[in-house]
Design brief:
The structure is a single chain. The protein has 122 residues and is mainly α. It is 84% helix and 0% strand. It is flat. The mean pLDDT is 91.
């Protein structure tokens, strides 16, 4: 991953996921399934984003049409991987907190918006 903007967004996704885990620990108290659910939800956003960066970022000095195809392919892989991760989480983790899962996912995906905001503040 050589793109500094992509690195910044991925790091921000990790930080926001960890923040969601800490907040869910404070809110949920002694139950462990809510923070674990928030972590899994964050991973459902971070792993597809890493796949996107790997696929789209691998293109160097190509025509605009090839670059666009790479981004379309990366977005399709990201979408399918997100669905598979959510499906796997919901199928294999029986004590999963749906609120924690989606809370972690929303926290991680908000990194795209915060990344734009922080970039424009520079």
């Amino acid at each position: 991953m050589t793109n500094p903007d992509a690195k910044r967004v991925i790091r921000l996704q990790v930080r926001l996921t960890l923040l969601a885990v800490v907040i869910s620990m404070l809110v949920a108290g002694a139950t462990i399934n809510v923070p674990v659910s928030a972590l899994i939800g964050g991973l459902c956003a971070i792993l597809p984003a890493l796949a996107y960066v790997h696929i789209a970022g691998s293109m160097q000095r190509v025509s605009p049409a090839e670059l666009m195809r790479a981004h379309y392919k990366a977005e399709a892989v990201k979408f399918v991987l997100t669905l598979l991760l959510f499906g796997g989480a919901l199928a294999f983790f029986k004590d999963l907190s749906v609120a924690g899962l989606f809370g972690g996912y929303i926290a991680a995906t908000s990194a795209y918006w915060f990344g734009l905001l922080f970039k424009n503040l520079d």
